[in-house]
Predict the 3D structure of the following.
Amino acid sequence: MQALTNRQKLVERKPMSFIERMYLPAIFKGMAITFSHIFKKKPTINYPEKKRPFSPVFRGLHILNRDEEGRENCTACGLCAVACPAEAITMEAAERKSNEEHLYREEKYAAKYEINMLRCIFCGLCEEACPKDAIYLSETFAPSDYQRKQFIYSKDELLIPHPIDNPEAYKKALGNRAKKKKLN
Ligand code: SF4
Ligand code: SF4
């Protein structure tokens, strides 16, 4: 057969020695390596019972933030979508009605807000671009799933729990931000 390059090398197949044909020395050598690892510190952990602490700069699943009164911070300005290099964010803006002041902090709010987690590269630029502290990347990650459509996160899935109705879940979602806000 004609060679494609001149770098081919013939591999010499030496006949096995008597020791090699017995296989036992190779088996003992392998067992010795295995046993030598028994007393070493395990690099693995029993996930999900145990979890490793995340790096302080870890960027996980997005959270749409509320203020202390539970009003949504997002004003649907679209800066996060413009900043997103993966074009993962889509939204629809709506105008706040007079009886909705307890729901939305600003006069305009996101009636629809979606992030496609299959596109997202968790760069954090949406958080940096937001002028209203309305979105941040939390210390958790998107759970696995079997269907692509499950990775398009809607506003309901992204919104932080209400701080007055569900303070424990709110604090948990804030994570390290709770410490900064002295909620712990
Ligand atoms: S983390 Fe980056 S890629 Fe993901 S939605 Fe935000 S800006 Fe887009
Ligand atoms: S999350 Fe922030 S940047 Fe994005 S639309 Fe809402 S207010 Fe604007």
